[in-house]
Design a protein that fits this description.
The complex is a heterodimer of chains A (about 260) and B (about 260). Chain A is built from 11 helices and no strands. Chain A is mainly α and about 260 residues long. In chain A, helix 6 packs across helix 7 and helix 8 runs antiparallel to helix 9. The N and C termini of chain B lie far apart (about 40 Å). The chains are: A mainly alpha (about 260), B alpha/beta (about 260).
């Protein structure tokens, strides 16, 4: 009899093991909660978490929290990305600018961004601005330094070829360096976006009216572990979606680098 | 066109670490000439090329193109590097068009000349392919087309086939030789391969190492009909043997 090719083929699919990993954890979770070994207060069942999520969604709370957190992340990170790109390129191409700023940035980079929260609250109050600024401060130095590194790794030949073809200085930036580093820039943004998500939750735990982090800290106050789980899972899923979005963009825009 | 390298020296470093790389090198190239500099590693041949290209400045001496001193890189001296320096995000055609678009030529002219030069290097069919989809030899042909399309007065070839397999190397030599015969381009070739220099160039300068200096210049006035045939003619073999002995002498009994 001919051997079936179904299983080898299925296993060869790049996603199948990843999905299996998630399913296994879900099964274990269901199993453990079904036995009643663990207090439901500490570990709610997947069904209870789903119910809590649905309740929040239908009450419109989940949607509002989502919009609030996502808006903060995107505003802060867009600001950071917009500042980091020209600054990183300037540092990567100009030795004086690099020598001036690199030690300073190296220093500030190691200050934990959440430690800035008290200062930001004193400066900017309790509204949106301190949260956006926290995300900005927490990501802009990483973004800048990683872009600077990408610029430094642009092969010399590519720049020198442009010079021997009659390229001007400004053209080197726009026609050689920028397109050359585009894949690394997207990757930098993708990686540091994760920090932006961390920071928005931290900011909301401290002070906010709404947001996914705020919801989690409220849930803690009322011992609603099911709602904490809802918050955690939603944050994880959104992070994953953003990551996939960046990967997709990369595949579309920088197919030459794959 | 007349390119003149006059008493050029180049040293790197300062004080005690100062190292003389090129000493008092002089040679000229006129329109339609194909000149080769041959030397082993340490002979400063790549440094010489960078000086002509304007990517580095000589420590002493002058380099002029049509009487005008070289002050930096420019499109009058097109360069082909040893490592493929194609822009990996541009297609073959976009790479060829790159220099022309940097110079702001009208779109139509860029398109026409791009397809012309792709045809010249035999790669019309590969116009839309990315560099990584091309073989090493094809990539170097695109690099040559790109340099030629910017209409340089002289083409600078820095070990252009050094990274290629022997067989592809030979076919690329045939290709470059045919190109030179068809288009009458002016070229300066840097190579460590004596045979390559003798096959392609009309004039060959031998560079001695540490510091790099010209120790011998020969007119390779050989019947450049067909390279495969030329390789085995007695004149070619005799000249090659004579110069090879000269190069061996330089490497062995280093002029201390």
């Amino acid at each position: 009899m001919r051997e079936s090719t179904f299983w080898p083929r299925l296993l060869a699919h790049p996603w199948i093991l990843g999905i299996a990993g998630i399913l296994i954890v879900l099964l274990l979770w269901t199993g453990v909660t079904a036995t009643g070994l663990v207090d439901r207060l500490f570990l709610p069942s997947p069904a209870a978490v789903l119910a809590a999520g649905q309740a929040q969604a239908s009450a419109g709370i989940l949607g509002r929290d989502l919009v609030a957190s996502v808006t903060r992340v995107f505003t802060g990170f867009a600001l950071s990305a917009a500042v980091a790109l020209p600054l990183g390129i300037a540092m990567g191409t100009n030795r004086a600018i690099c020598q001036l700023l690199e030690p300073l940035m190296g220093l500030i980079r190691y200050m934990p961004a959440p430690a800035f929260i008290p200062l930001l609250i004193i400066y900017f109050g309790l509204e949106e601005l301190p949260k956006v600024m926290l995300i900005f401060i927490g990501t802009v130095f990483f973004n800048t330094l990683m872009i600077m590194d990408a610029v430094k790794f642009v092969p010399h030949e590519l720049v020198e070829t442009a010079l021997t073809l009659g390229g001007k200085r400004a053209q080197l930036l726009t026609r050689v360096i920028t397109p050359c580093i585009a894949p690394q820039v997207l990757d930098t943004y993708r990686i540091n976006m994760a920090s932006a998500w961390n920071l928005v939750i931290v900011a909301e735990l401290v002070a906010a009216n709404e947001g996914l982090g705020k919801r989690i800290s409220l849930a803690q106050r009322f011992l609603r572990t099911d709602e904490i789980f809802v918050g955690l899972i939603v944050i994880g899923v959104i992070g994953l979606l953003i990551d996939l979005g960046f990967r997709l963009l990369m595949r579309r825009a920088c197919s030459w680098a794959n | 066109m007349h390119l003149s390298v006059d008493s050029v020296s180049k040293s790197f470093g300062e004080g005690k670490a100062r190292k003389l790389v090129l000493e008092n090198v002089s040679f000229t190239i006129s329109s339609g000439e194909f000149v080769a500099l041959v030397g082993s590693s340490g002979s400063g041949k790549s440094t010489m090329m960078r000086l002509v290209a304007g990517l580095d400045r000589p420590s002493a001496g002058t380099i002029t193109v049509d009487g005008v001193p070289v002050k930096g890189p420019g499109s009058d001296r097109g360069m082909v590097f040893q490592k493929y320096s194609l822009y990996p995000w541009l297609t073959a055609a976009q790479n060829v068009a790159f220099g022309m678009s940097l110079q702001g030529l009208p779109r139509r002219e860029v398109q026409e000349r791009t397809s012309y030069f792709l045809e010249v290097v035999g790669l019309s069919d590969a116009a839309r392919r990315l560099p990584r989809e091309l073989s090493g030899g094809m990539q170097q042909r695109v690099a040559i087309a790109r340099a030629l399309a910017a209409e340089p007065k002289v083409l600078l070839l820095d070990e252009p086939f050094g990274a290629l397999d022997l067989q592809i190397r030979e076919s690329m030599q045939e290709f470059l030789h045919g190109l030179w015969q068809r288009t009458g381009l002016t070229a300066l070739l840097i190579t460590h391969d004596l045979e390559e220099a003798l096959l392609l160039a009309q004039r060959v300068h031998i560079l001695a190492p540490r510091p790099g200096r010209i120790v011998r210049s020969v007119a390779a006035d050989l019947p450049h009909g067909e390279l495969a045939h030329l390789r085995v003619t007695p004149e070619f073999l005799a000249l090659r043997e004579e110069l090879a002995a000269c190069l061996r002498g330089l490497d062995g009994g280093l002029g201390l």
